[in-house]
Amino acid sequence: MQASPMKVIHVVTTTDVGGAQIMLHRYLSALKDGAQSHSVISLVPPGAVASQIEALGVEVTDLGLRPGRITFAALLRLRRLLRDARPDVVHGWMYHGCLAAWAGLKLLPKRKRAAQVWAVHHSLQDINNEKRSTRMVVRMMAALSRKIELITYCSRVSQEQHEAIGFYPDRVELIANAVDTEIFRPDPAARARLGGIADIPDERLIIGNVARNHPMKDHVAIAKATAQLVEMGHDVHAVLVGEGHRGSLAEQTAQDLGITNRVSIIDTRPDIHRIVPGFDIFLLSSAWGEAFPLAVSEAMAAEVPCVVTDVGDCAQLVGDTGRVVPPAQPEKQALAVAELIDEGPIARATLGKLARERVTDNFSTDIYVDRHYAAYGRATSAKISSQS
């Protein structure tokens, strides 16, 4: 008789566009053998990724919470959902999703609690950079972490930082984010396409970034670096792709520096894979918070050389295929970009090819799926052992 598939419920903070949400969708998209069944519970109302997950035939439920809030009524509803579904594994994603998953299971009788997996997709360069409510959640998770069957991190730096503030170090797995190299690939037509969308002159070299507007992303640094590059005599144009950039501090900084004609904003869009290959250089300017930035690996898959700040596992991700600079120092970002410009298009193309090889060899979707299968097996085994 064929064994029933392992039942996994994913509890996520939100299904808005973000690295963790994209990785959840990517994981669910890659499942083929029917060995697992999945459903998703979001704390807040559906975001853009929810419909993409539902298109895979995966049920998505939400608890209707406001961002950053967890109510007892919502936890009771989560408890009912978990009780009725009787999953083998409950997989929490992001801080609030992890904490809610723990609380929902805690409200069940001990014998009916599934194995828990927490997925941490954030780095903690300095916990004081986080909002007060986030700091409280993280410290609660640290206190509870010994009781969790398995914690996964998407970067080694993130693991070290969380363990330094008290996260239990013994039942952990490192599962680096995966990049879909079939979707993100070189596209000779992308430069003209991007130039048309953002009205960029053909002769300008495009410095791109893909990320929502948030202080930790430090997009102001991109505006400052772009202004410095123009002062150095480089004909460059910055493109910020993502949510919340219109009217942002970065846009205001570009205006103050007199470079509004050299900074373009493109809102979040589903065909980002048709935009990224049009960048000449990808610039990750983040000051903190990154663990394993998906946008960098996607640019690498598209053969775009990258300049990244030394946050999370960025340095390990790009290796010798790009440039690494200290965070919060736009002048050094500008100098690193200038170095790639001065090396010329052939050298940049060579770095781009090496970058694609690097992510293809080390961060494939198949590897990501296999490591999650192993993680769920390890978590359920740990649960059984704790009950014996």
UniProtKB/TrEMBL annotation:
Keyword tags: Transferase
This protein's record includes keyword NADP: no
Organism of provenance: Aliiroseovarius halocynthiae
InterPro entries, alphabetized: Glyco_trans_1 (IPR001296), Glyco_trans_4-like_N (IPR028098)
Name of the molecule in the record: Glycosyltransferase
GO molecular function, one term: glycosyltransferase activity
Residue ranges annotated for the Glycosyltransferase subfamily 4-like N-terminal domain, each copy included: 17-182
Ranges where the Glycosyl transferase family domain occurs: 199-357
